[in-house]
Amino acid sequence: MSVFRRRKGETPVGEEISYPSIASLTPRAKTAVRGRVVRIVKQPAQGLPTLLVRIEDESGSATAVWSGRRSIGGLDLGRKVVIEGVPMASPTGLRFFNPAYTLLP
Amino acid sequence: MKIVIAGAGSVGRYMAEQLSSTGNQVTLIDSDASAVSRINVSGVTTAVGDACELDTLAKAGLAEADVVAAVTGDDEDNLVISLLAKQEFAVPRVVARVNNPNNEWMFNEMWGVDVSVSTPHLLTAMVEEAVSVGSLVRIMKFEHGKAQLAEVTLAAGSPAVNCRITDLGLPRETTIVAIMRDGHVVAPQADTPLHQGDEVVVLMTGDCEADVRRILIGASAS
């Protein structure tokens, strides 16, 4: 898939690249999805700062989890992002653990 | 189940043999080819390479693994392997071995560890369990401490002696899972009476340790 060949400074990520829809993702397959941030939860899990960011596209939603941080600059509500990582199934839908992210304008 | 074990020391090799003999599909990784080759059970797949490298883990089939066990003799390696297994391969269950108990605080979700096993802590619990009567010994924790298994040997002064389990008034979060009496395991029923000297194994969830102490040990216990 072309999205994986993307490197810094190469073709800008964004509208022109087509990403799979969130609903079509299969757990444990490395992927990249585009969506909008609809919820940010700062949740200390066992005393560790944990950031849960829910992203949504037309088809569904998934959660990105970053351990050890309380916020990520630029990752605000309503922001369009590309999340790249390996989703895992969880009771609350697909979860990305420490995914790579790209903020879209 | 597909299980990948990182670290072919005596611990890793033993686990591989045991888990393979119970019908699991086991892959053993180590950077030392001679350590890997020392495994003498057919059916265990071996992979030679650094388990802290993504390539090695991918070759060992982490993408399809149900469980990964990081059991090298090096805590740093075990943490890196756990993190990679969770972050890069979304392995559902990651088990890690703690070598130095001072490092145990790091073996948590932040590093992708679902279950950590610390031999020094287990040994301490076992020794404590062997020498103590009339106090609560924590044997094992599950789900990052949300549930724990504890043991109480009933002393003569315990309010639970000669009580039936149903009359103890244990909190809902607490279950007596086994009673060891005169070298036998008694499966606890509601009407099972407790005797002095019984080793009572209790599963506790949530914060009910104080209640369990009060009921099984008595008011004098701190």
Task: Please give a structural write-up.
Chain A is mainly β. Chain A has one domain: OB fold (Dihydrolipoamide Acetyltransferase, E2P), CATH 2.40.50.140. Chain A has no helices and seven strands. Chain A has strands at residues 31-42, 50-56, 61-67, 80-85, 87-88, 95-97, 100-103. Chain A is globular and about 40 Å long. Chain B has 222 residues and is an alpha/beta fold. Chain B has helices at 10-21, 33-37, 54-59, 75-89, 119-131, 209-216, and strands at 2-6, 25-30, 44-48, 67-70, 93-98, 115-118, 136-142, 147-153, 174-181, 184-186, 199-205. In chain B, strand 1, helix 1 and strand 2 (25-30) form a beta-alpha-beta unit.
Which ranges of chain A are low-confidence, i.e. pLDDT below 50, for 5 or more consecutive residues? 1-11
CATH domain class of the largest domain in chain B:
Alpha Beta
- Provide the CATH architecture of chain A: Beta Barrel
Major beta sheet summary of chain A: 7 strands, mixed
What are the segments of chain B in which pLDDT stays under 50 over at least 5 consecutive residues? Answer: none
- Helical stretch tally of chain B: 6
Strand order of the largest sheet of chain A: 5-6-3-2-1-4-7
- The class by helix and strand makeup of chain A works out as mainly beta
> What's the β-strand tally of chain A?
7
Counted up, domains of chain B total 2
- In the CATH hierarchy, what is the superfamily of the largest domain in chain B? NAD(P)-binding Rossmann-like Domain
